Q: What sequence folds into this?
C-alpha cells in the first residue's frame, strides 16, 4: 500500500529521496528534489526559489556552511543607499564646494525614493527644459510647497551653475538638496 503524499506544510527531507540534488549558487538558490516513493512530487523537475529560512534549514541538514554573501550580513558592509549618500556628499564637497549636512542629505535621498537607483532617473538633465520643468513642478511646488513664480527658475539656474553646467552627472538628490538649502526649507524634512 502506497503512503499518502505529504502536504506542503509537512514536507520533510525524508519524504523525498535521501540525497536531493541541491543547486546553490550565489545568484540563484534553488532546490530540485525527486521522490521514488511518491512518484512525481509537486516540486519534481521544477526549480523553486527558496526562502532564506528554508535554505538555511537545508544547509544545516546537509552540514554545509551557509552561502550568505558578506554584503547581506548585518553590520559588515554599508547598504546601497548609504553608498549613494556617500557619493552625493563627495559630489557636494568636490563639485559644488558645499559642506553637506549629512542628516538633511540622507532625508532628501530617502525622499527621492527608488529613483536614485535607476540610471536615467537618478540624474537631472540640466540642459533639457522639460526636465527642469519637472523638477520645478514635482519638487519645488509639490514637495517644498513653493508658489509658482520666476524665482523658482532663477533658483534652478543658480543650482545648475553651482553644480556646473558642463557636469554630465547631476545627481537628483544633490540638486534637491541644493534647492532645499537655497530656499531654507529644511523643516520639510525634519
A:
Amino acid at each position: 500500500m502506497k503512503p499518502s503524499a505529504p502536504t506542503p506544510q509537512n514536507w520533510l527531507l525524508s519524504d523525498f529521496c535521501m540525497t536531493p540534488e541541491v543547486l546553490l549558487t550565489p545568484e540563484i538558490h534553488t532546490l530540485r528534489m525527486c521522490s521514488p516513493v511518491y512518484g512525481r512530487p509537486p516540486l519534481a523537475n521544477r526549480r523553486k526559489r527558496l526562502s532564506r529560512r528554508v535554505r538555511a534549514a537545508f544547509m544545516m541538514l546537509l552540514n554545509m556552511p551557509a552561502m550568505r554573501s558578506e554584503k547581506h550580513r548585518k553590520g559588515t558592509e554599508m547598504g546601497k543607499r548609504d553608498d549613494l549618500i556617500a557619493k552625493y556628499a563627495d559630489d557636494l564637497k568636490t563639485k559644488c564646494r558645499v559642506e553637506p549636512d549629512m542628516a538633511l542629505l540622507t532625508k532628501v535621498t530617502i525622499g527621492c525614493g527608488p529613483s536614485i537607483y535607476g540610471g536615467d532617473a537618478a540624474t537631472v538633465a540640466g540642459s533639457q527644459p522639460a526636465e527642469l520643468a519637472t523638477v520645478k513642478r514635482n519638487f519645488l511646488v509639490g514637495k517644498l510647497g513653493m508658489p509658482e513664480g520666476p524665482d523658482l527658475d532663477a533658483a534652478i539656474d543658480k543650482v545648475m551653475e553651482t553644480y556646473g553646467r558642463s557636469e554630465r552627472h547631476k545627481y537628483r538628490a544633490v540638486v534637491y538638496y541644493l534647492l532645499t538649502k537655497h530656499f531654507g526649507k529644511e523643516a520639510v524634512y525634519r
